[in-house]
């Protein structure tokens, strides 16, 4: 499992005074960038012009979050061909409440935007890191 | 059915050179604000402190969109108690391709953030406008 | 002079219930993309990997703007070597009030991010369009 | 002086592959929220419906920043009636380069959006914290 923490910023609140629902997707995207980085894949993807592109996002919003809340994002990653699938769970450290959960399916595109199989090497590097995290 | 058009703005592109997946949620949110406005409900909701809050978002991304693309958002609204459900379909006028579709479930909260039944009056005002649009 | 219109979207409001000050920069950026497009320069810049990059932004905020306000952006463009300078004035059509004014200085970078002189051809194409607009 | 650190997130990059110029304003806004919080003023402002609103933003962009860069925001605050003025300097910890500097002038509004004098108590609480930070 991967863990990433984000502190809610003032400009992420909308006119309802809480974090806008689209911003949850921003938070989860950043957690995924961090996973790619931790697995040592970031430079390679950029160098080869390969892109992980979101194809499907199913998000369940459970509790609102507000300025300075500390949001913990737990993520598990699985290959479910042809997708790399990210299972996110968001918690609010202030109160230890559940905030949201989501399933995000991504595909890998090459520089010409042709879909690629998710390479075993990528899956293994992520899995290795994921297991190391416990 | 409701129809709303949005032109893609330069700052909505991410480092992949296309509209970031979270921005699709922004576009659809704006289409919903417009529906609320067209149905004559906007002032009332603001005055009474009632809020439509997204509880579930299921988005399927079909094609990327880029700077100056004209995105048409078709929306159908149904009451499926306790939710007000928005069925969005996004098209790109440049090429007439499908861009995305989504199901967004919202609940209505009062000023103290207690869930309310979706009032029949709200459903009727939206339905009336929806049918009028053909 | 160039003129661009933007309608305020719901998700652009912050917790103060008005458009966040950073979003004014988004609006003005989009007005500049449109000028580049109208002058017929967009495809060329992208093809050659040249980038107009903001170096200085001086913004004076005059009135708040809110959901569904129609914002008119008037822009004059001048070459003041080594900068291309954009003079923006924003008005709210709802009430005909002044919203903001700004001076944005940009430089032109080549694909290796080396600064370039602003080419006379670029200035002429913009000036031609600008005068045509009256 | 106040110090705040932000790590650049993937979705904050624009199609140029670097942080969009408007996002610098987001970063600085968040640094100001943190100052308000550290000075113990956040709850009071929210409770009394008072708002610090940006009236003038002068930003000088010095170097681009990219994914995972760690940005340090140094801020000094001064009362220059009728404004509360924030002097921001942004550095990139990766390479220790200067990123931007800005002067942001804000006024204080009451719940009816009437301008208020910046209260001495507010200035003292901020100054006390500022000096404590060295």
Can you put this structure into words, describing what you see?
- Chain A is α+β, with helices and mostly antiparallel strands.
- The first copy, chain A, has a single domain (2-132), classed as Hotdog Thioesterase (Thiol Ester Dehydrase, Chain A, Roll), CATH 3.10.129.10.
- Helices cover 28% and strands 40% of the residues of chain A.
- Chain A has helices spanning 21-38, 42-48, 120-132; strands at residues 2-7, 51-61, 70-80, 83-92, 97-109, 115-116.
- In chain A, strands 1, 2, 3, 4, 5 and 6 form a six-stranded antiparallel beta sheet that branches.
- The longest helix of chain A is centred in the N-terminal third of the chain and has 18 residues, at 21-38.
- Chains B and C meet through helix 1 of B and helix 1 of C.
- Strand 2 (51-61) of chain C pairs antiparallel with strand 2 (51-61) of chain D, so a sheet runs across the interface.
- From the coordinates shown, what is the CATH architecture of chain A? Roll
Largest interface: A-B, 19 and 19 residues
**Main beta-sheet annotation of chain A:** 6 strands, antiparallel
Tally of contiguous helical segments of chain A: 3
Please provide the ordered H/E string of secondary-structure elements of chain A: EHHEEEEEH
Mean pLDDT of chain A: 95
Helix content of chain A: 25-40%
Structure classification of chain A: alpha+beta
Oligomer: homotetramer
Tertiary shape of chain A: globular
Radius of gyration of chain A, in Å, reads: 15 Å
Distance between the termini of chain A: 6 Å
> Which ranges of chain A are low-confidence, i.e. pLDDT below 50, for 5 or more consecutive residues?
none
CATH topology of chain A: Thiol Ester Dehydrase, Chain A
């Amino acid at each position: 499992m991967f863990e990433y923490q984000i502190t809610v910023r003032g400009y992420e609140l909308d006119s309802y005074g809480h974090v806008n629902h689209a911003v949850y997707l921003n938070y989860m995207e950043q957690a995924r960038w961090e996973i790619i980085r931790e697995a040592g894949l970031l430079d390679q993807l950029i160098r080869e012009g390969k892109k992980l592109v979101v194809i499907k996002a199913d998000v369940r919003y459970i509790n609102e979050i507000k300025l300075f809340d500390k949001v913990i994002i737990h993520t598990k990653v699985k290959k479910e061909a042809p997708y790399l699938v990210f299972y996110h769970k968001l918690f609010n450290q202030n109160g230890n409440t559940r905030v949201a959960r989501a399933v995000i399916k991504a595909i890998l595109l090459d520089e010409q935007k042709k879909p690629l199989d998710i390479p075993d090497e990528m899956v293994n590097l992520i899995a290795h890191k994921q297991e190391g995290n416990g």
